[in-house]
Amino acid sequence: MEKKPFVTKEKLEEIAAKYPTPFHLYDEKGIRENARRMNQAFSWNKGFREYFAVKATPNPVLMKILKEEGCGVDCSSYTELMLSDACGFGGADIMFSSNDTPPEDFRLAKKLGAIINLDDLTHVEFLNEVAGIPETICCRYNPGGTFRTANGIMDNPGEAKYGMTYGQMAEAYRKLGQLGAKRFGIHAFLASNTQTEEYYPELARILFELAVKLRDKTGADIRFVNLSGGVGIPYTPDGEPVDILKVGEGVKEAFRRVLEPAGMGDVAVFTELGRFMLGPYGCLVTRAVHEKHTYKDYIGVDACAANLMRPAMYGAYHHITVMGKEDAPCDHKYDVTGGLCENNDKFAIDRMLPKIDKGDLLVLHDTGAHGFSMGYNYNGKLRSAEILLKEDGSFELIRRAETPEDYFATLDFLNLFG
Ligand SMILES: *Cc1c(COP(=O)(O)O)cnc(C)c1O
Hints:
This protein is 29% helix and 23% strand. The protein has 12 helices and 19 strands. The strands form 3 sheets. Strands 1, 12, 13, 14, 15, 16, 17, 18 and 19 form a 9-stranded mixed sheet that branches. The structure holds pyridoxal-5'-phosphate. The site of pyridoxal-5'-phosphate has 17 residues, from helix 10.
């Protein structure tokens, strides 16, 4: 599928005149339409809820848009809980799916009434000591080995630090019951950025079968199964987006075959998607500022890996559109680089693009999730602004860019600058 930016060059120049590049731009219309499709895909399940994974894009304006579309939030840290609380999420609107969890995080989750998802059997005792056991509680499962569908291996849960074995799940349920838990959930995240309609249905089958087994073995009242994150998006132009309606149908099929015959037709299905909810509806907008020709041809832009880490960290592909040159032939081979003193600070390597001139606006696609949020301050680089392109075509600053004062804020007691 051809990748087209959700914004015109004229609009981008208008935005950039007010808020200088680089910035992350988000598409309200796309976000809302996708969230509605998501809810439609699972409308067959009475208790269905998507808990947006806050770590993907922790911006309060975007979180409130998702809240208006019926989503809850999935948090994994103290500050994510604080942010969710401030956005008006509370109680069962919040899943707390953390690991290696500090005591104060559990305390805040308990205080907010969040649904706590335990990553390990030892966390039963730990939670009991630091915050007490709530009546509704969830445990994270790891089946070990490799996770495969009919089309091959998807990932290696056996190598992942998350979750409990079957025996530990049963033991955790028993202990939690003794400590006062009354309602139980199951959670698992077995593969990331999956590109097929089969991931959730296969995961659902495994977790639904586990739910029946755990109920039979421990008598636990299982109220929900959380399929977590992992539904992917196509970053490359040749990929096809996952058809979420088909995914919903596949999960429904597993639900009908496994849970309903076991008398568990009232179990709610939860999801915790981040990438699928926002990934395609954000982009990083940057300007070409330098052009360099040595052993290769380089375009230096005003963004760097501090604004988008995925290419440097994973070698991830992010499609680039040179605005205004959409129909020009891609007859130049460039490395598109940022200014970090790290040779991996490259948004693209040997990428065929139209001839780029200084001043051109470049759009890096699909940065709406795990984009801005993975940013960092290496080399003293500052985090960019985030801007929302609203449904009516107007735009709004939803996070200002960092200033040097922000960067030095943690040294304020030294009074370095007088
Ligand atoms: C990161 C994460 C998610 C979201 O993952 P995506 O790949 O963005 O869908 C959901 N749940 C948990 C526990 C996570 O750690």
